[in-house]
Amino acid sequence: HVFPMPATSAAGAPWVQARRAAEASVMETLDGGWAALGHVALTGQSALVRDLQAIASPGFCWSPQEMLFRTDTTPDLCKALGHSAELVEVHAAFARNTVGELLPSSGTVVAKRMRGFHQNFDGYSDMSYCWNAHRQAVNISRYRRVPGVAVLLTEHHANSNIGHASRDAGFFAYLLHEEMGARNIGSQNSSLPISMVIVKDHQYHHMVAAGNRAHPFRMESLRALMNGSVPPANIAYIGDREANKTMYSLFDNRTEDGVCFDVAIQRLRMWYFDHGVYREKAWEYCGVDRAQPADTFLIEAHGKVDKTRGTRRWRDQAALASFVQNHSVSEGLTVRVESFDKGWTFCDQVRLYARSRVALHHHGAAVAGNGAFLRPDAVLVELEAVSCISPSREAPDFTKCKGGIGPTLNFGFAHAQGLRYVGGKVVVPTPLDAKPCPSAPDYFYREDCVLDLQYDAFASVLDRVRTLLGAPPPGISSTSAMPSLASTEIARLAGARLRPAPGLGDINLTPVDDATLWRAQLTGLVLLLVVLPVVSLWWFCFGRRRVLAKPVAAAAGEPHVAG
Fold first, then answer.
1. Could you read off the pLDDT of 274-296 as tens digits, one per residue?
2. Quick check: helix, strand or coil at residue 96?
3. Closest CA to 419 of 357, 376, 479, 458
4. 380-403 pLDDT, tens per residue?
5. What global pTM score does this model have?
6. How many angstroms separate the CA atoms of 258 and 239, rounded?
């Protein structure tokens, strides 16, 4: 039984003093990836696991009276994190990573970076996902233990917005990758599998009050990730009646008071690099035909099915499709314009994106919601309003603004997923009546603002897409299965020697060498601090005198040679 028991003895007992000392300290920081979760379970204290970029809490429980609660010794998870910590971050390597364009290459990059924490739960922004579930001193001797790890998914309004749901899905897929990696390298902690998924959308109560459950796409996407990995019944959308039924099914309420999980893990980051696991799990779940060629240029139409209502509608959808059809970027492809408002199941959308060579959208939920299902050699395109410096945010004159290639709101998603991506600032929000359209993002939510294009700038975006539609980079195939996870797990870790968890043996993993990164940074620092002052001093002492002397010599009638 790995959970700390509640106080039943005098306040001066040694274990009570130890508990108070633990409460006064900051949260423990661990390395070791998935193996570190065993350390958390055995010590009974929450910890920041640096190379999972997540918080792990032991003894995470549910009861009909208390609902979700913690039994660890940390009074406030978010404050215990401190103001910053060094995280071990893994992301795709890129052959090209410029303003508004991404071209991934084979392999991954591991880096240590200091990150600052937002100590209040946000549910939207990077480093602000710490959810401080309340702590209770409850006697849990009558609670059923569910061995394994409970994954907490805490994105705001992810139950109603598939774009935000993709953030939770990416984190879940990332954890599945780490768990599989731990098994493949023979970790003694492979006995801590993911056994439960707990969805805690803090805005879900609005949907429940209206008589609705989570969006079908959201529910189906999590089923796809759980398929073959987590028991299909072990998911609870906290806030609705079905969640209570799920929790009750995990214990015998006649003889037991509730249920507890060995460890609960929650995210800190907005996006995680999942090594393609989400795509692969969705393709498998939906029966994607891997032999099907990528033969589609997809244009997503935001708004309602009848195209006469809704926000972010193309002003002339036919003209947009015709322009793409006549550009060389669509050579050999079928141009399709689709709206996913109604009638499209999760798997319908997965299969369509799996056969799309290019997927073009204005900013909206489908960019991140469906972009993860693209093949590695496909290109994701996101368009937004032209960049415009205007004295009036409420009524900028978009016709005087210059469009071009530039980063859009889902650049971070594309970078985290390792996607080929082009961002276009080429949209001209156009009012249907006399009221002008505001700047981004305000025009996103105005039904009377439709989307026109600066077609010359849009052509340059399509030109850039065309350059990315070459052969897949070395080591990446559009039909490749998930990578070998054993080598990935080893190369992922940046610490040369990791602290062993009690009972787990010595952990000694090969680090990734960051020398190249440090040499580049040191070179830049030398240029800034040494070369630039020397050049400036030379100019002030010698170069300046030569330039000033030339017009004097010429005025005196002496020969003057330019240069």
1. 999 999 999 999 999 999 999 99
2. strand
3. 376
4. 999 999 987 766 666 788 888 889
5. 0.80
6. 17
